[in-house]
């Protein structure tokens, strides 16, 4: 019930400078659970923004009244990685020893925001639901931790896909929950949901 809403939400997207990406933003109005109406869209060219500083942008909504006020910062990506299983970042014993030293009890108050990081190896899925008429699916896997999101590649025409990828996330809140969702890629249409599992960090 507001024409001037304040959300004050922060989202982290992993952007790689070799890509020329646009940030697409949509504003929606929700009457109830079933009815939604698009109030406008706007786009930000990430490559045109100055790096290593917070950019305050007032973005008019296209073809609709109103505007969005946003703070966008393009900063070096630290602590986040995607790699193949054969080059796992924690595979080196000396690297593991450095990490153990970094997060030992005597260093726990050196940097309050540096809680640690989570490494997830996504190996495979078994006996997925068939989402296509052919009796197969085109599955990919999405991992979310807080506002961080990474995803695997798509394995086409397969109900038992093998991804063999290693994902590393910085941990910002020890009470966060790792959510792993499997989707079926469906061309230009939104992906179909194939299943989900949620793992609280405190249970690891």
From TrEMBL:
PROSITE patterns: C2. Keywords: Calcium, Membrane, Metal-binding, Repeat, Transmembrane, Transmembrane helix. The keyword Metal-binding applies. One of its GO terms (biological process) is regulation of neurotransmitter secretion. Signal peptide: none annotated. It is found in: Membrane. GO terms for molecular function: calcium ion binding. Residues 1-59, 93-204 form the C2 domain. It is a multi-pass membrane protein. It comes from the Eukaryota. The keyword Transmembrane applies. GO terms for cellular component: synaptic vesicle membrane. Gene3D superfamilies: C2 domain. PANTHER family: C2 DOMAIN-CONTAINING PROTEIN, MULTIPLE C2 AND TRANSMEMBRANE DOMAIN-CONTAINING PROTEIN 2. Belongs to the MCTP family. This is MCTP2 protein. It comes from Chaetops frenatus. The gene is Mctp2.
């Amino acid at each position: 019930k507001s024409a001037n809403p304040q959300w004050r939400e922060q989202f982290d997207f992993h952007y790689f400078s070799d890509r020329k990406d646009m940030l697409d933003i949509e504003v929606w109005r929700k009457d109830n659970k079933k009815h939604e109406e698009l109030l406008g869209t706007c786009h930000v060219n990430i490559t045109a923004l100055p790096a290593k500083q917070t950019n305050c942008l007032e973005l008019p909504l296209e073809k609709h009244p109103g505007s969005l006020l946003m703070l966008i910062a393009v900063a070096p990506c630290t602590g986040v990685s995607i790699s193949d299983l054969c080059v796992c970042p924690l595979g080196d014993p000396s690297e593991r020893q450095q990490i153990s030293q970094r997060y030992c009890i005597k260093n726990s108050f050196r940097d309050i925001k540096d809680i640690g990081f989570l490494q997830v190896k996504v190996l495979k899925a078994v006996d997925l639901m068939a989402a296509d008429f052919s009796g197969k699916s085109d599955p990919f896997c999405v991992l979310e931790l807080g506002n961080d999101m990474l995803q695997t590649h798509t394995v086409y025409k397969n109900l038992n896909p093998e991804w063999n990828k290693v994902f590393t996330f910085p941990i910002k809140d020890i009470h966060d929950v790792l959510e792993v969702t499997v989707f079926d890629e469906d061309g230009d249409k939104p992906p179909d949901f194939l299943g989900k599992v949620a793992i609280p960090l405190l249970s690891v």
